[in-house]
Design brief:
The chain is α/β, with parallel strands linked by helices. It is built from 14 helices and eleven strands. The strands form two sheets. It has a seven-stranded mixed beta sheet with strand order 1-7-6-5-4-2-3, with helices on both faces. Helix 2 runs parallel beside helix 9, helix 3 packs across helix 8 and helix 12 packs across helix 14. It is globular, with a radius of gyration of 23 Å. The N and C termini lie far apart (about 75 Å). Bound molecules: pyridoxal-5'-phosphate. The site of pyridoxal-5'-phosphate has 14 residues, from helix 3 and helix 4.
Length: about 400
Amino acid sequence: MSQQHPSRMGHPVPSVTVPSSPPIYQSTAFDVPDLDVLEKIHAGELHGDIYTRDSNPNHTALAESIATLEGTEGGAVFASGMGALGAIFLSLASAGDHVILAQAIYGKTMQLAHRMQRFGINVSTFDATNPDELTSLVTDRTRFVLVETVSNPLLEVSDIRGLANLLPAEIPLVVDSTFTTPELIKPCQQGASIVMHSASKYVNGHGDVMLGLAAGSADMMKRLNSTASVFGQNANPFESWLCQRGLRTLPLRMKQICRTTQELARSLNGHPSLRRVYHPSLENHVSHKLAQRLYPAGTGGILSLELAGSGAEVVNRFMRAATSIPFAPTLADARTTLSHPASTSHRFMSASARAAVGICDELVRVSVGLESFEQLQSELLAALDMIAKT
Ligand SMILES: Cc1ncc(COP(=O)(O)O)c(C=O)c1O
């Protein structure tokens, strides 16, 4: 074997084969042959990575994967779902501008919008189940409208095509599809301009990654990437690699959790320890008809249970009774988890603000994982039976 130049020590010896699993490019920077090549990379005439904050092969591969799955020109990768949302706000809105958000939206997203008010961005909210409210809020300073495909934790469904049709062409509809993934809906095929995901959730699906993704036009992705680079919202190559691996099983995982969640909603509905089960497959859900039309395969792995009883006390009794289902303030892990929106995702809201959007203190969110329906049904029913007795 020939001796390596000291600057190449530790690099793999060139090989005629390629690894079956893509390598991780855990590198801060990339060696550039000379200034001519550098200029061509900057001009877009050659593809090359220079500095990982701007681009990295693992990020590019994942960005291309999400663009393919969403049917868009481009994709982009961020350090987290909030990183993606932050880049969208910072790229599209400036002081004096206006943005409109669905009122039933992830708590931190609402918090982000409130922070943006400090920088002169005005925020309005609307009820996404009543799209007519949207038209009256649009002004000539409105820069985008943000909704979730299926809201957290009450699972209200947005009619993406209906909303996009109400907006003037120059106002982008941004859709957070974290709960649904491209397996269940492709918002940009229904009139949205940008779709984003907290890939920390189903897209990765194993509870071991913090990552955000966006997909849309090539120009829009360029803008978001440029913002992410300036504000340091870039991801880590290893997380992109893990997420790429998670994506390989996305179709199987979504199929299984949709089926289990629907069956659980049906079998828990009506239990005497529950005031209400929230799931769009149930006829009493506000989005039942719309969900049947937009989500024939299901709305994902979330269902919410409103416990009969009062406050933290009944929630604690239920969580302690459900011994094998952990309480974890996340969702979309491969295992089933429980969360309490009032004290986790929506804790920064006042009790009255939570009540106004239908989130009471007795609400428990179940994120259904890959266990069998029979196992989950027996564990949840046993916990509900136990709190009925105590
Ligand atoms: C619907 C939704 N959007 C965005 C986010 C933020 O994503 P991340 O936790 O990856 O920053 C979350 C996180 O739970 C979420 O549930």
